[in-house]
Amino acid sequence: MYQTTKSDKKESVWLSKLLLSCSLKGSFIPKVEARDFRHFARFRKKIIEEIACEKNGIIKVLEGANIKLSSVLSNFDGVAGNRIIDTLIEERVM
């Protein structure tokens, strides 16, 4: 359980005095458009991070199977890399 301290009591008294004297500013609340933009920017960042995590996982699995695409391709998630990975998957399944 949260326990108050002497400083908490002093701060609450100080804040109440400031509030009563109208010395406190209200919190900044951005407009709906700005909130939506922030939400989508955070969502985009999360998706990009998840994609990078999945790519790293693919590289780890391939290197665990002694397949090092980075020695052949500079960008394994391009068209050529995807074709190689698709071929590897098809050969493994069949």
Automatic annotation (TrEMBL):
One of its GO terms (biological process) is DNA transposition. InterPro entries: Transp_IS110-like_N (IPR002525). It comes from the Bacteria. GO terms for molecular function: DNA binding; transposase activity. Residues 4-65 form the Transposase IS110-like N-terminal domain. Coiled coil: none annotated. This is Transposase IS110-like N-terminal domain-containing protein.
